[in-house]
Design brief:
Blueprint lengths: L3 E4 L5 H10 L4 E4 L7 H5 L3 E2 L12 E4 L4 H7 L2 H7 L4 E4 L5 H12 L4 E4 L2 E2 L2 H5 L3 E5 L3 H14 L1 E6 L6 H29 L4 H9 L6 H12 L10 H17 L5 H15 L12 H6 L5
Parallel strand pairs: 1-2, 1-4, 2-3, 4-5, 5-6, 8-9
Antiparallel strand pairs: 7-8
Helix pairs in contact: 8-9, 8-10, 8-11, 9-10, 11-12
Keywords: NAD, Oxidoreductase
Protein name: NAD(P)-dependent oxidoreductase
Amino acid sequence: METIGFIGTGHLGLPIVTNLLKAGYPVKVYNRTREKAAPLEALGAELVDSPAATAVRGGIVLTLVSDDKAVESIADNDFIQALGHGGIHVSLSTISPDTSRALAAHHQKQGVTYVAAPVFARPEAAAAKAGNAVVSGPGAAKERVKPLLEAGFAKNVFDLGEDPGSANVLKLIGNFMIAGAIEMMAEAFTLAEKNGVDPKVAYEMLTTTLFAAPIFRSYGAMVLERNFADSPAFGAALGLKDMNLVLQTATRSHTPMPLAQLVQSRLMTVVARNEKDTDWVALATGAREDAGLKG
């Protein structure tokens, strides 16, 4: 198997690299905080000291970092030249569609292919290879990358065509729908509690019948438990970043999204309270507080 580069071993990157190693891929890993990648070294990964050092000429490097600026800072000339002609940079991050398109053009000038493949999975789903990937970019590169996505985290891979920004549009849509579902359940369970109905009973009835879907089951349970600060898998600051990108994309395409504005405001409140390190499900506290419920 060819050696794979991987940059960014946070909550989500760690299980993906672990799966790649278990599948037999040699992996060269760079993480800005080297200590966070130490568990992977024990599993056989090679830790390196720069993004460019993860690259094998003509090979594949996957990046999974927090935002547009982080991806742009990685994809400098040293990194692209290290990948070289025939190399592929796979961005697993949730970033702006416009940033993906600009990155693709920048890579192409030096013979490197850029593929957008943002991850649909929380860490536990990625570890179980039960996540989903959406990919966009040149066809041959996507075919070469697909086995890595399946080995790393993806039960399903959905092809969005050649436009490198398309996968990022769909990823933003997905995150918006999750945030909207969190807000909806927060309001529904608040209404139940205010009217003497046990929210847990409402949750069980609704998420096993009319709304029997993984998002409602998993996030609904988190809304009820209200334990948002214990090692968040996806922080409120990242959720706010994503909702900002949703609304930026909506504005550029003249698409009114009032619900997105609401959940953006909910997340901004969480971050403004210096609770940015809580899970983004904390946006659910807004509905309770509006209704005069505490705790």
